[in-house]
């Protein structure tokens, strides 16, 4: 027997109950038009995800419940819809999925395994469920699990497997990480085999603060073989016919026993996988686009130094928003080299972004005339004058300022608090410098292959990195070469290797000592950095909480 | 039979394994000199608390275990010591207490109930224990619980009570909140009665990032009556003799069966409770002092506007560090009134803090000449020029900048990001404006009562609040009167009442709408605010995690 599923890989907005309900209704209508029997939505699609401590507000809990009840009456009654939302049970919040049929909520399933690591705080925000749910739909026993439920060996999905479901449905809010798609597929395959049933894995798309959801919804058959796979980072409703067996278990709820027929089979697609750079590029673009849009901004402002970081950020912003909504400002001082302005101008000419030049020397001099600042204090004044200029333009014209710092410099504290760290969003804060170059080259190559003008000036990519805050300054005066630095940072920051383990892994001892001492000192600056797209698994910010006041040193 | 306990109410530093071990050794020596039989330390005293995600670093776990083993051999062998630390069990971190006797660890107890709300993230950081521990010491069956274990009805302490301990020992890392001391006492009393045994509750002192630990260690007898209570906010070793019954249960570990005698009874003290203002004042002073000291600073810098917020911060800093380590700078612009400078000067004269004046008009004009900034954008330039000036002095002279914002303006977003929000620590970020006045009056009265010059100029207390960023500006142009505003904020922010509940509670509807709309818009600014002493239960920052990108509105 076949059942037609509609996997709604869509992009809800946290807190936008009315907007999300409208998105859901549209997707259900699409599913009905395509002849689907079950429309499946991502985790907490009605509230958006993650809601963090909003989950704890009673007024929000009540609003979510009411919105679900209202939505149930509005959805097309010819289809069963599986909709995630925030419930309030005995006064406590639960991460819930509702099975909606005939204008009513027929059954509910509460997430049993609550992740509380990395970017997740669910044990803080929800009360865990403790039982499986099987509902009979068109004679098929359908089991439901939510996201983390799938990741736990011997957990609720093992209990569900014992109930011999004919189909397993898994709504997810699974954020993008580099190479996570491979892990997901292996997991989906494994659980389908354990349950001896087809499994439909539905993930959301879009950016939410630091997180990006990449979609990548998957349907496998009971052997774990992929039947259909949605493209990453694209919204849409994927229609898939699955082979299912008539129910033999004891369902908790019977919604319908009538079997269905599919006149004209659907043709499932298995989307092409993106390459590493393309995947990262899309993650950053989606994260940036949604941060701007969902926060009600229409345009962004970037300080263009002529260097590679700001050029990359501008190129990403243009892909996210279009050149008309991206404004660049060059802010040369007496230490800026000639090529800095030229490269910023070339970037503007290549792409058509709005561009202006504001000389900062008079502002800097005004400070230096009033206060005796020298050395690093003097260097920082230049960065802070630029920050104040950007924020002035932001306040005057309503642009969101984008900070241009990358993960390598941020990790080492090589930035000025209230200076180049200024901004409402930091698109590449989770991108190592070596990846900054790789992404820039990749984007230019894509343009060249398409016969377009590559956006990023070649010299911005090839020139030696410099903050240009004093004569002849180079990043390499203060930091190890990025090729080496990034390897140590990955091992220390992302993989959590301690000093001895780093040395045992073959890194030079003096280098290890130098990098660790920079990273450990930089915590305070990182705390004040704006949010930005999370791309690698262990980053700074939300998924890493360290005391600012700590004497612990690896050294 | 009597047993002599030494409750070590001390102030460890997170990560400072060597320093904390030295503190522990000194306290054990004091306990031995006083003839105590058991020395009891706060939760995770060896690592400091809270360690947050440091708990997840394998190298730190191993270092903590090694430090404990080394410490055990060094502690005086004539006493049993109860020492909290971070353990690594099966490769996972546990919040553990060691029972040390004769130079060895004789038993271990892992915290069973892990708080994961408000400022706590323990479910994220530790693996929970699952069993009680009873050890026999001098023939007495001693049960151990850790902090949150005590707060859970029907939890591990109920299991412990069934084992009929002769004494219950509870190491704590319990942060200060307003009026928490009353709650603690009621809880300690209740658990002692349930266990039918005396209970010794030991809490730490000192500041750790946003948290302040206020001590308030308590010993009650088996009826729950208070035998001894340590002063809040003071370090020390409290010696208390408790009546105990010989062991009748089956202990997990027998350390010693020999009974002890006490030749000369100790005289327990019950410390005087502090008044509300005194308690808050001490909390802020301790938090500020330890943030400065534990982060390796020796001096602080405050922008003195002549207003009450900066005057209060300076007075707090002087009580924390002494006037020689507090530097004030007045930064008048053309909108500053004459009394602003006079009051800043008077504050300096009253207290002896370092003082200078830096005129900012030329810096402001330099910006306005180069960039077309008007209205709010122009106002913010002044605040940011001040922020840049403060940070310049900080970078040049090594002072930690103190931000002077209070909770009322921070909640409403009435501050300039990268302007008055600049600083490494914000001592009064969790203090409502009405409490700012109350604390100022209280401190001046204390000085007057002692025949000293009150530190805060009277006019700074009585003048109408103004940011002085445009002619004749008043806070009341933008905010409701603080007396009313603070009541709404307490209900909305601290007590989590929604719109309807606020109106039902009797607040004016238009006022509620106005305040909610300000608070909900201000989230981004709050994220970028420096840490500061947490004084009320629900504050901004660590104990409140909201999505920045959210369309949810109470309105």
Automatic annotation (TrEMBL), chains A, B:
Top-level division of the source organism's lineage: Bacteria
Stretch list, region Disordered: 453-477
Gene Ontology cellular-component annotations: cytoplasm
Catalyzed reactions per annotation: deamido-NAD(+) + L-glutamine + ATP + H2O = L-glutamate + AMP + diphosphate + NAD(+) + H(+)
Record EC number: 6.3.5.1
Pathway: Cofactor biosynthesis; NAD(+) biosynthesis; NAD(+) from deamido-NAD(+) (L-Gln route): step 1/1
Record's keyword annotation contains NAD: yes
Positions contributing to L-glutamine binding: 117, 174, 180
Residue stretches of biased makeup (Basic and acidic residues): 460-477
Domain CN hydrolase residue range list: 3-244
Binding positions (deamido-NAD(+)): 380, 409, 525
GO molecular function: ATP binding; glutaminase activity; NAD+ synthase (glutamine-hydrolyzing) activity; NAD+ synthase activity
One GO term (biological process): NAD+ biosynthetic process
Chain residues that bind ATP: 303-310, 404
Keyword list, A-Z: ATP-binding, Ligase, NAD, Nucleotide-binding
Active-site annotation: 43 (proton acceptor), 111 (for glutaminase activity), 147 (nucleophile)
Heme as UniProt keyword: no
NCBIfam families, sorted: nadE, PRK13981.1
The protein's role, per its UniProt record: Catalyzes the ATP-dependent amidation of deamido-NAD to form NAD. Uses L-glutamine as a nitrogen source.
Family: In the C-terminal section; belongs to the NAD synthetase family.
Protein name from the UniProt record: Glutamine-dependent NAD(+) synthetase
Species this chain originates from: Candidatus Planktophila dulcis
Upper taxonomic lineage: Bacteria, Bacillati, Actinomycetota, Actinomycetes, Candidatus Nanopelagicales
Gene that produces this protein: nadE
């Amino acid at each position: 027997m076949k059942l037609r599923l509609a996997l709604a890989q869509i992009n809800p907005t946290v807190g936008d109950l009315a907007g999300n309900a409208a998105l859901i209704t549209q997707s259900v209508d699409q599913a009905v038009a395509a002849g689907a029997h079950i429309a499946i939505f991502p985790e907490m699609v009605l509230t958006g995800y993650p809601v963090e401590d909003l989950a704890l507000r009673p007024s929000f809990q009540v609003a979510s419940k009411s919105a679900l009840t209202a939505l149930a009456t509005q959805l097309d009654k010819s289809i069963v819809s599986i909709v995630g939302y925030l419930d309030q049970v005995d006064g406590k919040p639960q991460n819930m999925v509702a099975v909606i049929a005939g204008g009513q909520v027929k059954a509910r399933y509460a997430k049993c395994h609550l992740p509380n690591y990395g970017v997740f705080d669910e044990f803080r925000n929800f009360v865990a469920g403790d039982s499986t749910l099987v509902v009979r739909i068109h004679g098929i026993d359908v089991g439901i699990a939510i996201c983390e439920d799938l990741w736990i060996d011997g957990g609720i999905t093992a209990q569900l497997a014992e109930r011999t479901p004919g189909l397993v449905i898994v709504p997810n809010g699974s954020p993008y990480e580099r190479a996570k798609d491979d892990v997901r597929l292996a997991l989906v395959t494994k659980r389908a085999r354990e349950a001896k049933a087809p499994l439909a894995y539905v993930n959301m798309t879009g950016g939410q603060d630091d997180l990006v959801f990449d979609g990548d919804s998957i349907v496998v058959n009971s052997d774990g073989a992929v039947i259909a796979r949605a493209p990453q980072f694209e919204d849409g409703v994927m229609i898939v016919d699955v082979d299912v067996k008539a129910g033999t278990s004891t369902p908790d709820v019977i919604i319908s026993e009538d079997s269905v027929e599919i006149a004209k089979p659907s043709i499932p697609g298995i989307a092409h996988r993106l390459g590493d750079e393309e995947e990262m590029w899309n993650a950053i673009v989606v994260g940036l686009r949604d941060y701007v849009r969902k926060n009600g901004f229409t345009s962004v402002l970037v300080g263009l130094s002529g260097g590679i970081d700001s050029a990359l950020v501008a190129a990403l912003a243009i892909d996210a928003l279009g050149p008309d909504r991206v404004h660049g400002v060059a802010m040369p001082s007496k230490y800026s080299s000639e090529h800095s302005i030229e490269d910023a101008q070339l970037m503007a000419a290549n792409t058509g972004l709005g561009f202006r030049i504001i000389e900062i020397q008079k502002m800097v001099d005004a400070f230096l005339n009033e206060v005796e600042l020298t050395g690093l204090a003097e260097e920082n004044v230049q960065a802070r004058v630029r920050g104040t200029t950007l924020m002035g333009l932001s306040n005057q014209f309503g642009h969101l300022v984008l900070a241009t710092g990358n993960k390598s410099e941020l990790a080492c504290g090589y930035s000025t608090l209230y200076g180049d760290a200024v901004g409402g969003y930091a698109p590449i804060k989770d991108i190592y410098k070596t990846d900054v170059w790789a992404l820039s080259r990749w984007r230019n190559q894509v343009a060249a292959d398409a016969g377009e003008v590559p956006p990023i000036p070649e010299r911005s990519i090839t020139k030696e990195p410099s903050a240009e805050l004093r004569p002849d300054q180079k990043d390499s005066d203060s930091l190890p070469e990025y090729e080496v630095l990034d390897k140590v940072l990955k091992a220390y920051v992302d993989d959590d290797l301690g000093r001895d383990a780093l040395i045992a892994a073959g890194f030079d001892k003096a280098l290890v000592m130098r990098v660790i001492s920079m990273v450990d000192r930089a915590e305070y600056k990182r705390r004040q950095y704006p949010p930005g797209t999370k791309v690698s698994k262990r980053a700074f910010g939300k998924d890493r909480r360290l005391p600012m006041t700590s004497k612990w040193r690896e050294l």
